[in-house]
């Protein structure tokens, strides 16, 4: 889940209350305090609330929750004075486009950082690493409208952000850090997206990099926000960014988009979505009956507008920046959050049941007992990881049996692990300040070809670590399991040739063991020999 750093001075100013109250109450809106610093607080929010990925969004939510400014937040949007034309060829490259202007924003260095952090968090939370959504924010005073959104030749050149010399778009994808990182998004295209002003100055090369000309500084007051992508999440991101800037005193202004066929559109829509709640579904989900005025009050605390209809139903106004509201149950959950889960009476289930441990739990428990008896410490790393750690750092080829996260919130958590060893080596790399030897293990879940599995892995690091150590460990483990096994030479590139072996039971490979290949050790930043093994406990 995303961790957002919130400076106290910003948070107190935008919220209208003191930091002690904020620290005490912010967990009640669905957040965990990660750490409290002298000048800021780090808070972890659920990934379904991208509107809380900034200090402005958190302040808005807290003002309602603390009854400082409850209810539906209306934003005045001024008529357009600027238009942007879409080229007919862009629809085959990156078709969905949204934009707006926010004027009169007062920036500080921390406010700029917050804006940049919000962009990057949305790129992950909504944009699937910029593929579905990418956001650009530009100093409007540096460019001249009207603007054009076109599909351009890859040899078109401009000065990208963080550089001082012009580069072609093709060169940016090959040499610029952002270009090399996101070049795969434009694979297979002969033309690239580009946003230009009336003088052919480049604002943005989405989804890769902005031009350096429109970089936002503390002197910036008027901003053009552009959002491009492949889905309607583009408009959600536009709503979140523009309303966050409006919380800093900015005035939002429409931008007219002229399509290639001559039709016109206004992509920004901040009007509320309407849903109607039945009293029965509210009472049934919460588990208690609440008066209508109490329901309306709690909806107001959570940032909704609400009123009771003549037939007793509740009509709810949903802000456009609330991407998490998919159906009525999401709204009812917010009623319960506003009311307080601690106030909802606990009720025993109607049916009594007798539980027993699952077979997989029994296997894991047995493995924990054996491994701790052999002198190893249990660890519990995340099951989410990344291609970089799982394959590149392990010197292994990528496989087709990986399950990827549809909407990753971090570049470090893009896939579900298929093996445990990389996670254990990562833990060793984070504990180099501890004395050696270090011996750790995990019996945990993996997902291969979309199916859950159970693996056991262990690693040992010390100057004396060698193949004999890990072979003796596997011998002891298999003896305790009453399982006969044999070994054959392995070809796993994560281990050293001649010091690696596949583990076979009844002629079937169930695992591997050996001394880690030196490049693997270097990739994880370690400086001592490492040995390890991993076996499938269900084979």
From TrEMBL:
Superkingdom, natural source: Archaea
Domain B5: 270-346
Keyword Cytoplasm tagged: yes
Catalysed conversion reaction: tRNA(Phe) + L-phenylalanine + ATP = L-phenylalanyl-tRNA(Phe) + AMP + diphosphate + H(+)
Keywords: Aminoacyl-tRNA synthetase, ATP-binding, Cytoplasm, Ligase, Magnesium, Metal-binding, Nucleotide-binding, Protein biosynthesis
Tagged with keyword Repressor: no
Cofactor(s) required for function per UniProt: Mg(2+)
Gene Ontology molecular function terms on file: ATP binding; magnesium ion binding; phenylalanine-tRNA ligase activity; RNA binding
GO cellular component: phenylalanine-tRNA ligase complex
EC number(s) reported in the record: 6.1.1.20
Coiled-coil regions listed in the entry: none
CDD domains: PheRS_beta_core
Chain sites annotated for binding Mg(2+): 324, 330, 333-334
Location(s), subcellular: Cytoplasm
Record-linked Pfam families: B3_4, B5, tRNA_synthFbeta
Complex and partners: Tetramer of two alpha and two beta subunits.
Family to which the UniProt record says this protein belongs: Belongs to the phenylalanyl-tRNA synthetase beta subunit family. Type 2 subfamily.
Record-given protein name: Phenylalanine--tRNA ligase beta subunit
Species per Swiss-Prot/TrEMBL record: Methanolobus vulcani
Chain's gene name: pheT
């Amino acid at each position: 889940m995303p961790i957002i750093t919130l400076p106290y001075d910003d948070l107190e100013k935008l919220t209208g209350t003191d930091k002690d109250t904020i620290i005490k109450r912010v967990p009640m809106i669905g957040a965990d305090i990660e750490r409290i610093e002298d000048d800021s607080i780090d808070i972890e929010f659920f990934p379904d609330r991208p509107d809380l990925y900034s200090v402005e969004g958190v302040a808005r939510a807290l003002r309602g929750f603390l009854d400082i400014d409850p209810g539906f937040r209306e934003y005045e949007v001024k008529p357009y004075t600027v238009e942007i034309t879409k080229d007919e060829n862009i629809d085959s490259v990156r078709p969905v486009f949204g934009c707006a202007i926010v004027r009169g924003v007062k920036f500080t260095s921390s406010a700029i950082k917050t804006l940049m952090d919000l962009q990057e968090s949305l790129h992950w939370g909504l944009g699937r690493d910029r593929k579905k959504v990418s956001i650009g924010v530009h100093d409007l005073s540096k460019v001249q409208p009207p603007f054009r959104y076109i599909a351009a030749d890859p040899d078109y050149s401009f000065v990208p952000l963080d550089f001082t010399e012009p580069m072609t778009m093709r060169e940016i994808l090959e040499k610029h850090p952002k270009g090399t990182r996101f070049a795969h998004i434009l694979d297979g295209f002969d033309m690239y997206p580009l946003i230009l002003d009336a003088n052919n100055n480049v604002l943005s090369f989405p989804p890769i990099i902005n031009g350096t000309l429109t970089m936002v500084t503390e002197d910036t007051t008027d901003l053009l926000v552009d959002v491009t992508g492949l889905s309607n999440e583009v408009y959600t991101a536009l709503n979140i960014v523009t309303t966050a800037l409006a919380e800093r005193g900015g005035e939002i202004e429409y931008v007219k988009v002229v399509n290639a066929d001559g039709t016109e559109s206004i992509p920004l829509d901040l009007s509320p979505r309407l849903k109607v709640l039945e009293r029965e579904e509210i009472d049934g989900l919460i588990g208690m009956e609440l008066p209508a005025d109490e329901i309306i009050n709690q909806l107001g605390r959570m940032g909704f507008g609400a009123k009771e209809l003549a037939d007793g139903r509740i009509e709810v106004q949903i802000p456009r920046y609330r991407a998490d509201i998919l159906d009525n149950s999401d709204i009812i959950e917010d009623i319960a959050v506003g009311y307080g889960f601690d106030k909802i009476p606990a009720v025993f289930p109607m049916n009594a049941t007798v539980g027993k441990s699952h077979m997989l739990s029994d296997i894991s428990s047995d493995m924990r007992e054996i491994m701790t008896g052999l002198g190893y410490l249990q660890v519990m790393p995340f099951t989410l990881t990344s291609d970089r750690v799982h394959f590149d750092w392990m010197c292994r080829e990528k496989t087709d049996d990986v399950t990827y996260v549809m909407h990753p919130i971090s570049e470090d958590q893009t896939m579900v692990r298929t093996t445990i060893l990389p996670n254990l080596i990562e833990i060793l790399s984070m504990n180099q300040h501890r004395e050696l030897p270090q011996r750790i293990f995990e019996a945990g879940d993996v997902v291969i070809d979309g199916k859950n599995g159970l693996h056991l892995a262990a690693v040992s690091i010390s100057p004396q670590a060698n193949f004999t150590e890990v072979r003796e460990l596997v011998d002891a483990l298999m003896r305790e399991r009453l399982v006969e096994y044999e070994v054959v030479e392995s070809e796993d590139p994560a281990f050293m040739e001649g010091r690696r072996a596949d583990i076979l039971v009844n002629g079937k490979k169930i695992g591997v063991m050996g001394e880690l290949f030196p490049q693997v050790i270097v990739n994880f930043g370690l400086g001592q020999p490492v040995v390890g093994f991993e076996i499938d406990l269900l084979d």
